[in-house]
Amino acid sequence: MSLIEYEGRQIELPNDITSNDEKLLEVLLPYFPELSEATIERKAGQPIKIIKQAKTKGVE
Hints:
Strand content: 25-35%
Largest sheet: 4 strands, mixed
Shape: globular
Order of helices and strands: EEHHEE
Helix content: 10-25%
Strand order of the largest sheet: 2-1-4-3
C-alpha cells in the first residue's frame, strides 16, 4: 500500500495503482475531477503528493 496526499487528505491505495501515474489519476478522477491536469510528485520515503494545477478563468 502507498500513501497519497492531496490538499491535506491522505488516501491509502495499492502499489499496483500508485506505481503508474495514469492508473492513479484514473482511479482518483471520479472523486476529484479537478485533478485532470494534476502533477504527481514522488520522493523516496514520503507520501506521493498530488498537486492540482491552477487554470485560467474567463479567458476565451
